[in-house]
Amino acid sequence: LPNITATKTSDGKSTMLSYLVSLIENKNPESHQFVQELAPLQKVASSAGDLAKLDLAQLGVELQELRTKTAQCGVLIKALQKEPQTADNNTVIQTLTTFNDIASPALTDLTKRVAELQTSTVIRVGEYYGEDVSKGTVDIQSLIKNLGLFVRDYEAELKSVAERNERKARMASGAATTTSGAPARTPRNGTALPGLNLAATSLNAGGSTNERPMTGRTYGVSDKAFEDLL
């Protein structure tokens, strides 16, 4: 993903990302939707604290510590059960047993899910987005950061493409308006003189009060010759 943003064209005036955005805009603009779908990653990618929370290896260690503590809780419950049974003792045993019965299987399941995420899911996602998975592992923090930055740059380039297209449309509209003036008059000899005829039409159509109708004397010829020319 970083290579798409950084790779420039041969003339150095554009990037592969610009080409990609323009291509999608022309061929399949609906595909731009992924920018909205991955938008939350921009915030995560820009926050070192949020990225630190994605350390799956550290999460696995913490889960193992919690499993150890739930096992110790089970040992404590058995020890309390051997004590004389009192109301307070029974309350503590019941509370710890309920907690342990819920926490122990939940932690076991979560530990398996994190392990699967590390060894399978993250690798598949990384491979899909072009990350190097040859070592059998993918740094999820780098992956999320690269995705977030790519979405940010893609969104900015998409805005630039829209602005360029809008400018081109305005220029095309202006050019069309400029060339859509009065139709050229054809001289009696059959030869069209669009520049001369447009000027004559404009002046004879009634410009400002200081302007005079175009005559042959304007061009140093007789009025009769000028009429024949038009």
How would you describe the overall organization of this protein?
This protein has 230 residues and is mostly helical. The chain has helices spanning 2-6, 16-27, 34-37, 40-45, 48-52, 56-81, 87-128, 140-178, 194-204, 223-229. The radius of gyration is 39 Å and the shape is elongated.
Q: What is the mean pLDDT?
A: 76
Helix content: 55-70%
* Low-confidence parts: 191-212, 214-219
How big is the Rg? 39 Å
- Give the percentage of residues in beta strands: under 5%
Please outline the major beta sheet. Answer: none
User: What's the number of helices?
Assistant: 10
Short synopsis of the structure:
The protein has helices at 2-6, 16-27, 34-37, 40-45, 48-52, 56-81, 87-128, 140-178, 194-204, 223-229. With 230 residues, the protein is an all-alpha fold. The protein starts with a helix and ends with a helix.
Task: Give structural attributes.
single chain; 230 residues; mainly alpha
Q: What is the topological layout?
A:
Elements (H helix, E strand, L loop, with lengths): L1 H5 L9 H12 L6 H4 L2 H6 L2 H5 L3 H26 L5 H42 L11 H39 L15 H11 L18 H7 L1
Helix pairs in contact: 2-8, 6-7
